[in-house]
Amino acid sequence: MEKRITTPLTEEKVRDLKAGDTVLLSGIIYTARDAAHKRLVDLLDEGKELPIDVKNAIIYYVGPTPAKPGKAFGSGGPTTSYRMDPYAPRLLDIGLKGMIGKGLRSKEVVESMIKNKAVYFGAIGGAAALIGKSVVNAEVIAYDDLGAEAIRRLEVKDLPLVVVIDSEGNDLYELGQKAYLESRE
Questions:
Q1: In terms of DSSP bridges, do strands 22-31 and 151-165 run parallel, antiparallel, or are they unpaired?
Q2: Where does residue 181 rank: exposed (0-12), middle (13-18), buried (19+ CB within 10 A)?
Q3: What's the CA gap between 78 and 101, in Å, rounded?
Q4: Which helix (H) or strand (E) holds 160?
Q5: Helix (H, G, I), strand (E, B) or coil at 118
Q6: Active-site residue flag, 1
Q7: pLDDT by residue (tens digit) across 121-130?
Q8: Residue 66: which of 56, 58, 57, 76 has the closest Cα?
């Protein structure tokens, strides 16, 4: 089922999303990869304020290419998500509601998603240029020294996503594999 959602990503919106749903996402999201995630968790460990408010927010695991003249954003294909797994539960515990990436997540991340009512979206790998076209505005807001991995605030319109893991822990990778195997019997 295709759903249109707009940020902020509230718990009510999260509960309505099920593994396998296709989503067109609009609103404000943030980008961050592993180096930025480490810095965010280090700030939390030091009792300091984060440069972004993660409550009801979505973080897209991406390091975009430079934007072409007249464009807000370059190509932006998803980064493999497991590299953020050591940090994700801490951010989920303080209110992060959505993550966008590709690939499997650890048991600890899925358990934290269930506990905190969060969702993991898959972006289409190999469609980086298409994804980049959904970005209306982009600005670096933290860790400029990380280059492509700096934290950016993105305004997106109809960013195409798939719910991979929902807030109940249903995992599209597992469900899809099971359905395929059953269809072969």
A1: antiparallel
A2: exposed
A3: 5
A4: strand 151-165
A5: coil
A6: no
A7: 999 876 777 7
A8: 76
Q: From CA 21, how far away is CA 6, in angstroms rounded? A: 15
Considering the candidates 17, 33, 37, 172, report the single residue annotated as catalytic.
37
39 in Cβ contact with 143 (< 8 Å): yes
Dihedral angle over CA of 21, 113, 104, 13, nearest 10: 20
- The strand ranges marked E within 9-94 are 22-31, 58-60
In this structure, the strands spanning 58-60 and 22-31 are parallel
Domain boundaries, the chain: 2-184
Structurally, what CATH architecture does the domain formed by 2-184 represent?
Alpha-Beta Barrel (3.20)
Instruction: Map tokens 């718990």 to a residue.
Output: 11
Structure tokens that stand for 37 in this block: 């995630």
Look up the pTM and report it: 0.93
Q: What is the DSSP letter of 130?
A: H
**Amino acid (1-letter code) at residue 70:** G
Distance CA 105, CA 165 (A): 9
Cα–Cα nearest to 28, from 8, 13, 14: 8
In this prediction, residue 180 carries a pLDDT of 62
- Round to whole Å and give the CA distance between 157 and 84: 25
